[in-house]
Amino acid sequence: MRGYKVFAGTANEELAEDIAKALDMPLSKAKVSKFSDGEISVQISESVRGRDVFIIQPTCAPANDNLMELLIMTDALRRSSASSITAVVPYFGYARQDRKAAPRVPITAKLVSDLIEKAGVDRVVTMDLHAGQIQGFFDIPVDNLYGAMLFANYLKNKKLPDPIIASPDIGGVARARYFAERLGTEMVIVDKKREQANTSEVMNIIGNVEGKDVILVDDMIDTAGTMVKAAKVLKEKGANSVMACATHPVLSGPAYERIKDSVLDELVVSDTIPLTKECQDCEKIKVLSVAPIFGEVIRRVYHNESVNSLFS
């Protein structure tokens, strides 16, 4: 085979290093810098001619810089005669606007998809897209991995007395059902009404949580308002304990204080997004690494092996 190389942007360098370790290979070298006005400059420091190339770069905050860095690095590799370019985007930013939910609003998920494809990416590997239909915005292959692959064993090893899966909203039912099937448990739904972006009001619990160990599951946790309010209502409804699993720890604004002061017993997240120091030191937050999963997917993509078989 031609051989492959793995490059990393600056969005999550620690995760990129861990993925490279999982692959038992070093990260390839690229110089990423900025001009004095903030424009991003990229120089690939080694030959990629005829090679299959993987770029590890989540588009988390600062989303604009990290997205542009991905696009510019892709362009540099394409112009350096790379045979193929796979964008490994553990967290796919700008995914929350995936349809016209109101008049005169953009569909940013489609816009970002077009930008990535136009830059020259041949394949995208990501995890827990905010909406599964975003895969259809691309005309190239997209591998959307499930966070449940990471959390299932951790939850099983906790040996909770009477676990039950909870979806924090109606939109997350499919994800919650997948978790429930993996763990062999029942599920409930938190019915909430969202008044505006980043705020929510929990209205009702669909199902019985009396004496249960509830596991809230979601694709991301941003300001933590939904999770914290849901945990409070679940405890009021008689839940024995409430923990949450969220793949992407966006944790913006008042998230840290809300989690620290909440009735949540534990919040389990992945390292798709680097955590702030205060969140790393929070006793309630447990971080699991996605590096082995992404390392295995990169290996399988390069060797033309099945990625889908990982899901089972």
Give a written overview of the molecule.
The chain folds into two domains: 163 residues, Rossmann fold; 141 residues, Rossmann fold (3-Layer(aba) Sandwich). Strands 10-9-8-11-12-13-14 form a seven-stranded mixed sheet. A five-stranded parallel sheet has the order 1-4-5-6-7, with helices on both faces. By secondary structure, the protein is of the alpha/beta class. α6 links the parallel β11 and β12. α1 packs across α9, α2 runs parallel beside α3 and α4 crosses α5. The chain contains nine helices and 14 strands.
Provide keyphrases for this structure:
312 residues; alpha/beta; 2 domains; seven-stranded mixed β-sheet; 9 helices; 31% helix; 26% strand
| Main sheet specs | 7 strands, mixed
Show unreliable segments.
none
Strand tally is 14
The SS-based structural class is alpha/beta
Oligomer designation: single chain
Instruction: Using the coordinates shown, work out and report the CATH topology of the largest domain.
Output: Rossmann fold
Q: How much of the sequence is in beta strands?
A: 25-35%
Please identify the top-level CATH class of the largest domain.
Answer: Alpha Beta
Helices and strands, with pairings:
Layout: E1 4-8, H1 13-22, E2 30-34, E3 40-44, E4 52-56, H2 63-79, E5 84-89, H3 108-119, E6 123-127, E7 142-145, H4 148-158, E8 163-167, H5 173-183, E9 187-193, E10 201-206, E11 213-221, H6 225-236, E12 241-249, H7 255-261, E13 266-270, H8 277-280, E14 285-288, H9 291-302
Parallel strand pairs: 1-4, 4-5, 5-6, 6-7, 8-9, 8-11, 11-12, 12-13, 13-14
Antiparallel strand pairs: 2-3, 9-10
